[in-house]
Amino acid sequence: MDQNREGKNKKDYSRLFRRFIFLTMVCSLFPLLLAGWAINIHYSEFARERILKTLQTRVEYHKKIIELFLKENKTRLDFIARTNSIEFLIKEGNLTHILNNINRDDWVLTDIGIIDENGDHAAYVGPYKLIDKNYSNAFWFKEVMEKEIYTSDMFMGFRKEPHFIMAVTKKENGRRWILRATVNTDSFRSLVENVRIGRTGDVYILNSKGIYQTSPGFSGEILTQASGFKGEIHDDLKFRFLEIVDRDVKIKKIVCETWLKDPRWLLVVRVGEKEFFEDIRHANRATLVSLHLSALIILIVTVFVTNHMVQVIKKRDSELEEMNTQLMQAGKLASIGELSAGVAHEINNPLAIIMTEHQLLLDAEKRTPITDPEFGEQFAGSLSQIGTQVRRCAHITKNLMKFARRTKSVIETININVFVREVIDLMEREAKSDGITFKSVLDDTIPPILTDPSQLQQVLLNIINNAIAAHENKGYGMITIATRLSNDKTGIVIIVEDTGNGIKDEDIEKVFDPFFTTKSPGQGTGLGLSICYSIVKQLGGNIHVESDVGKGTLFTLTFPLKPPENLLKHG
Predict the structure, then answer these.
(1) If you write DSSP's letter for every residue of 66-80 in order, what string do you get?
(2) Nearest to residue 21, comparing CAs of 306, 314, 312, 294?
(3) More confident position, 316 or 109
């Protein structure tokens, strides 16, 4: 029958183990994975939108910079033309001075020239031999004569290299003339490519016909036709996602496009999608790895914890009968406690009678002295011994009643020095077994205080117990207990200092936290100092700790001469 019962219990424990595992997975593992995946998807979309928004902001900002650069130079040329006559500008040295001033901080313009209404140069400053060139048939000449201010597309021209010009017209003395300047191509290209992103990113400009105005970074050449150009002009910024083939490798690109206002050029920023979203992918991989690793850890911990719980349950079941026996024994002990209290109370009555009779004999001896000296000496010694033993019995019965009954805490006036000596006497034997001695430095001038002695005793015992434990493996040490009056004369200070192992700096601020302990597992609950802190605060005092690792720890307790009013009312 015992074997059948044991087999049934084994099946029950196996079923309980599987149920715990299943419930843990349903209640924690599956929700964790679902929530993790959902958060990962949401984060990916959110991060993707934020990165695209950041790219959009950068491109829009860069567009404004390019437009400002072009507008500034057109305005500069228009100002020069409006504020100076052609006679002044063609005068030797003046045009050179103007060009040098414009390029003083940065090389913005390559050359500058004055062209009359017939297309001939009236003056020219620059590195090319263009003074004898006629521009009456040039496309830009006709445009500027019609529009009065004009920025051209990139073209080759007489100099046989890509460049673009800015020109303004002015009518003076019935004749028109043109102030023409060539924007430095390298400077402009550097400005455009300043927004280039990553290793695979490139930035370039197309005109309204799709001709490259600057050199793209990885494909195409300046002044060639861009593939896939649609020519749709729009005022807002647009994204395109395309796939290109480079050396037989397909590469996904993100294309951000926006049109400049004047001239109508298309600013294009291309970024490799893989590189652009690499941070998001890295974060996603790290998140998913962490998520699944966490799930695996939860599963492993669940198996071990569940196995431990089942073993504990098995152990508790096997100990149930023993626990019932112990409960019965505890009931017997409780009965003995009540009986002890009754016996102590009954013994107190005859002790009181004996003390009364003892006093009567003393009074009788005083009224009628004994004439026999030897008998008188024996009689006095016997009476003294009777008094001593009766007081001893009264002390024993008093302690027995304290043990048997739980009495309500009361606020009492105590001599703190006497109180400390009693605590030392109580703990001295335990400390000596570990090679630890006590040293007391007590100030006899401090006044008595009004407090709860039982709670104060609990505080001191806890701290001293910790001080003894701090000398573990040392085999020697000293605990010093000192008392003195507080600096403001409104309370007393108790100092408990030991020569133990000390407390680490990272733990010193947590020693009063509930359940925090530096002791080995099973050696402490972490509640002792937390309870001490609560008691000290309840009594209206303060507690402070200082420690030096390897040298010892010092606790400073401060108590008022009178406890708080609420404690006096409810004490």
Answers:
(1) HHHHHHHHHHHHHHH
(2) 306
(3) 109
Task: Pull the structure tokens for residue 191.
Answer: 């400005």
Amino acid at 505: D
Residues 6+ apart with CB under 8 A from 182: 109, 110, 111, 112, 126, 163, 164, 165
What Rg do the C-alpha atoms of the chain give, in angstroms? 50
Query: What is this structure's pTM?
Result: 0.47
Distance CA 559, CA 53 (A): 63
Q: Burial of 261 by CB count in 10 Å (0-12 exposed, 13-18 middle, 19+ buried)?
A: exposed
For 440, phi then psi, to 5°, come to -115, 135
> Could you tell me which of 201, 198, 199, 214 has the C-alpha nearest to residue 260?
214
> Taking the CA of residue 32 as centre, how many other CA atoms within 13 Å lie in the half-sphere pointing to its CB?
18
**462 close to 545: Cβ distance less than 8 angstroms:** no
In the chain, how many H helices and how many E strands?
A: 14, 16
82-118 burial: b if 16+ Cβ within 10 Å, else e: eebebeebbeeeebeebbeebeeeeebbbbbbbbeee
Is the alpha carbon torsion for 464, 466, 468, 471 positive or negative?
negative
pLDDT of residue 495 exceeding 90, the answer is: yes
Helix (H) or strand (E) holding 259: strand 249-259
Residue 508, helix vs strand vs coil: helix
Reported as a pLDDT band with limits 50, 70 and 90, residue 282 is confident
